[in-house]
Amino acid sequence: MNQTTKIINQAKKENRTALLENEAKTICAEYGIPVNKFQLAKNEKEAAAYADQIGYPIVLKIVSPDIIHKSDAGGVMLNLKTPQEVVSAFKKIIENATKYKPDAEIVGVLVQEMAPQSTEVIVGAVKDPQFGQTIMFGLGGIFVELLKDVNFRVAPITAEDAKEMITQLKAYPLLNGYRNTPPADINALVAILCSTSHLIMNHPEIKELDLNPVMAYPKGAKTVDARIILE
Ligand code: ADP
Ligand code: MG
User: 5 CA distance to ligand 1 centroid (A)?
Assistant: First the structure.
């Protein structure tokens, strides 16, 4: 688990507690949590070149240690279809970020594969002062924010625990297939929960982790946003 330790040590050295999305996703990938393809671009030309490598449609996102909620800052642009769109979205994202937080340090723009739309789920972890590392699972959007339909377990968890966290949600029928929506790959979500448990047990210096959202597909799942906060 070389990359993970390196990234965490580097952040500590720079006195940063919030890892950047590319750092958090590199850690996820090392632990076997599926993430979409990404490359960090420093300028428009690089962004267009990476977009060609990754393939369209493309998503661009601001990368700044001072901007945690990227959409709030106008820092996420989805479904870009041409190099021209990538170049103008790059400019717009930098402009939005600068307006949102004039003194924000901007590391670059993350060029990434656009994952197909699907049911969005959330995997979270927080270090509870009493229980230690805990893991959370829920469905994205209103299910977490309004209905608080989420399940928690103290880590480490077994695959059986992970399965319960998923199937015991009130919204579970949404994952189990309804009308024209095929059932989500529950085993892929169980694997992500178990890998997350493994990661936070190996790294007690992780104070918070958020995979929000993870796209749940009939076959597999993909994390399109990852956030890790260190103590
Ligand atoms: P924020 O920092 O605001 O949480 P996100 O990276 O989660 O930013 O992006 C906001 C939303 O855009 C996500 O909730 C998801 O619906 C969509 N999104 C982000 N990245 C991708 C992607 N690579 N493919 C498809 N949809 C994405
Ligand atoms: Mg997000």
Answer: 26
Asked if residues 50 and 111 have their Cβ atoms less than 8 Å apart, the reply is yes
* Amino acid of residue 66: D
Q: How far apart are CA 224 and CA 184, in angstroms?
A: 17
Alpha helices (H) along the chain: 2-13, 21-30, 44-54, 83-100, 142-145, 159-167, 172-175, 186-202
Could you count the other beta carbons within 10 Å of the beta carbon of residue 193? 27
C-alpha–C-alpha distance, residues 120 and 213, integer Å: 6
Residues with CB under 6 A from ligand 1: 36, 59, 61, 69-71, 76, 78, 112, 114-115, 212-213, 224-225
* Ligand 1 centroid distance, CA of 74 (Å): 12
Q: Which atom of ligand 1 is nearest to the CA of 225?
A: 6
What number is the average pLDDT over the span 183-197?
A: 98
> What is the spatial distance between Cα 142 and Cα 150, in angstroms, rounded to a whole number?
11
Predicted confidence (pLDDT) per residue in 13-33, tens digit: 999 999 999 999 999 999 999
Q: Ligand 2 centroid to 16 CA: how many Å?
A: 20
pTM of full prediction above 0.90? yes
Give the Cα separation of 48 and 51 in Å (integer): 5
Q: Identify which of 39, 71, 118, 229 to mutate to test ligand 1's pocket (most ligand atoms within 8 A of the CB).
A: 71
CA of 120 from ligand 1 middle (Å) equals: 10
Question: Angle CA(26)–CA(31)–CA(35) in degrees, nearest 5?
Answer: 50
